[in-house]
Amino acid sequence: MAIHMMRRVPTLIAVPAFLSLGVLTPLTAAPSAAVALEGPAPQCVEYFQSWRYTDVHNGCDDAVSVTVEYTNNQWAPCRVIEPGGRATFAGYGTNENYVTGLRTCDSAPPTTGA
């Protein structure tokens, strides 16, 4: 008779790992306030999408604040990209959430009234 033993993850490892999932979840969730969109990004800002990443290149002479629009309205952060610089956003993934375009956005943090 064969005895199968299941290896258990020690509690000291499992609890911190479980708690870290709760800490990381808000980083991928949509923020409570939407990104302030302004208009289409200039033509000198290009994107190249793949399954995992969307790379955005700023070919303009000035810094540009951009965000990525996706087919399912997924939220993407507003990022300032310096001239000649690049930024990486999420790709289309297994849900085929393709990029529909780039938009300029307000990269300034929201101000609180006093």
From TrEMBL:
Coiled-coil blocks: none
Stated role: Inhibits mammalian alpha-amylases specifically but has no action on plant and microbial alpha-amylases.
SMART domains recorded: A_amylase_inhib
Matching Pfam families: A_amylase_inhib (PF01356)
UniProt entry tagged with the keyword Nucleotide-binding: no
Keyword Cell inner membrane: no
Signal sequence, start to end: 1-29
Organism domain of life: Bacteria
Keywords, comma-separated and alphabetical: Alpha-amylase inhibitor, Disulfide bond, Signal
InterPro entries registered for this protein in UniProt: A-amylase_inhib, A-amylase_inhib_sf
Species of the source: Streptomyces nigra
The protein's name: Alpha-amylase inhibitor
